[in-house]
Backbone:
């Protein structure tokens, strides 16, 4: 449970394990339920397009996301994959929403084992493919 008193739903952990171990999903979007008491799965997707993922990020509300990011640094090393945790908190989101998401993040983040990189996004430039690739390939976030 987080500082805000928000719990992580079992379905959120199951979906994450399906992504991580079963490669069942490309990405998962997590949101707070209507009562703001639990972090639940908002949507899962098998769409391989990073642009499809970006289109799902709301322009004016917060959410969390986990993305199985595949990339290639050079042809000799082949493809790599890292699981990325996104905290999406646009500048124009309601203050209350930003506060609850910020204080609830740790509960979800700690529950998800196997995350390689954390990315905080407040606008689309911070979560562009190029920016994410740069952070993932340097091993920094």
Residues:
């Amino acid at each position: 449970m987080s500082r805000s008193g928000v719990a992580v739903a079992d379905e959120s952990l199951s979906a994450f394990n399906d992504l991580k171990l079963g490669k069942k999903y490309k990405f998962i979007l997590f949101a707070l339920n209507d009562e703001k008491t639990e972090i639940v799965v908002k949507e899962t997707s098998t769409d391989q397009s990073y642009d499809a993922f970006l289109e799902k990020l709301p322009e004016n509300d917060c959410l969390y996301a986990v993305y199985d990011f595949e990339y290639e640094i050079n042809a000799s090393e082949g493809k790599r994959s890292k699981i990325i945790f996104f905290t999406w908190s646009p500048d124009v989101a309601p203050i209350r929403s930003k506060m609850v998401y910020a204080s609830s993040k740790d509960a979800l983040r700690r529950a998800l084992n196997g995350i390689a990189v954390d990315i905080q996004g407040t606008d689309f430039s911070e979560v562009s493919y190029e920016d994410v690739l740069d952070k993932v390939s340097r091993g920094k976030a």
